[in-house]
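Example protein
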Amino acid sequence: MYARDEKMNATIEEVNGKMEMIDVKINKQISLTEKFQKDVEANKNEIEEIRKEMKDVKTNLENMGNIVGRNMITMENNMEDRMKIIEDRMKTFEKTIKNATTSGSHNVVSAPKIIQPPTYNGQTPWSSYKKQFEATATANFWEEKQKATALVIAQL
């Protein structure tokens, strides 16, 4: 019986050894599965962050589009104002010519010369540019609205 018990003990030890190896493999598989799950969760979080950033970019682009749209409307309005000023000057000039020809006067009438303000590029000191602009406005007999329009146009 002793040999039989030894053989049975050897078989039990062999089974126990194999079970330990299976336990090690199962634990390793559990560890890998847990790591995989953590990686998946990290990737989900990263994807969510990217989605938030994309939403912010979209919002910023929409805001920029709105600003550009408003700026274009402002520029159109300024150009319309400028055109109105030019049209008014043309009418005044036409009246001056008409009056000169109907009154029998032989005086030569010349169109007033408009001095263009310098373009502001940001490199010239503002105080120097402002003096040049004010001198141009004075020479052109501009009113405040005309000065404002010309200043906006000079900065484009």
In short: Residues 2-102 form the longest helix (101 residues).
